[in-house]
C-alpha cells in the first residue's frame, strides 16, 4: 500500500513559526492507526543549513502561546486573526478531500500532528475532523496544556528527521484511502531563507 502525499497549503510569513522548523504532518486514516513510538536520540545534528541546536534553543525560549508560536505576529496591527485564517484554509482544503463535520463529509479515525507547537491546529482543526489525535512536538512545555484533553491519545516529544516521520506515518496508515497531508511555510523566491534568530530555514 502506498500512501497519498498531499501538500495542504503554503504561505510565507515574515517570521518563522514552530511549524517552519518541524514539518507539520497530518496523518489521517479511517482504520486503526498505531502511533509512532518515541525513541531516544542523541543531540540534534545539523542537516543542510538548519541549525537544530539553535532552533531548539530558540523555541525553548519563546512563550507557550499564540504570540510565541507566531513570532510576535499577534502583537502586530492587522495580524491578530492569522490563526483563524490559517485554520479556515486548512479546513477548506480537507473539505475538498471529503473530510469534515458537515455536508456528507466524514470524520477520520485518527490524525497525527508533528511539530504541533501548543496545539493550535490540533484544537482548532484536527479534533473536529478526527476521533483521536496523536501529537509529536520536540519542545515539552508547548504541549503541557494538552495532556488529558478528550480526543488526544498520546503526546510524544521527539526530534526525528522528516523521512523517519514519513516512514512512521506510512506504517500507521492501515487503509488504501489513508492520507498524509503536509503543511509547510515555503519560500516563494526560489531560494532558501535562513533565519539568523531561530536557526531555521524556509525552503
Automatic annotation (TrEMBL):
It comes from Verticillium longisporum (Verticillium dahliae var. longisporum). The keyword Transferase applies. GO terms for cellular component: cytoplasm. GO terms for molecular function: N-terminal protein N-methyltransferase activity. The keyword DNA repair does not apply. InterPro entries: MeTrfase_NTM1. Pfam families: Methyltransf_PK (PF05891). This is Alpha N-terminal protein methyltransferase 1 like.
Amino acid at each position: 500500500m502506498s500512501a497519498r502525499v498531499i501538500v495542504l497549503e503554503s504561505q510565507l510569513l515574515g517570521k518563522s513559526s514552530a511549524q517552519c522548523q518541524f514539518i507539520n504532518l497530518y496523518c489521517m486514516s479511517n482504520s486503526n492507526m498505531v502511533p509512532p513510538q518515541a525513541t531516544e536520540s542523541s543531540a540534534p545534528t545539523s542537516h543542510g543549513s538548519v541549525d537544530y541546536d539553535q532552533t531548539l534553543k530558540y523555541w525553548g525560549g519563546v512563550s507557550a502561546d499564540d504570540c510565541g508560536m507566531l513570532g510576535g505576529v499577534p502583537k502586530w496591527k492587522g495580524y491578530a486573526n492569522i490563526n483563524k485564517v490559517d485554520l479556515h484554509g486548512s479546513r477548506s482544503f480537507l473539505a475538498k478531500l471529503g473530510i469534515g463535520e458537515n455536508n456528507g463529509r466524514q470524520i477520520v479515525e485518527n490524525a497525527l500532528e508533528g511539530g504541533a507547537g501548543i496545539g493550535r491546529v490540533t484544537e482548532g482543526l484536527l479534533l473536529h475532523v478526527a476521533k483521536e489525535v496523536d501529537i509529536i512536538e520536540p519542545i515539552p512545555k508547548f504541549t503541557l496544556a494538552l495532556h488529558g484533553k478528550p480526543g488526544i491519545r498520546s503526546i510524544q516529544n521527539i526530534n526525528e528527521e522528516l523521512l523517519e516521520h514519513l516512514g512512521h506515518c506510512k506504517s500507521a496508515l492501515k487503509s488504501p484511502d489513508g492520507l498524509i497531508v503536509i503543511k509547510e511555510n515555503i519560500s516563494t523566491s526560489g531560494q532558501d531563507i535562513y533565519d539568523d534568530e531561530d536557526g531555521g530555514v524556509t525552503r
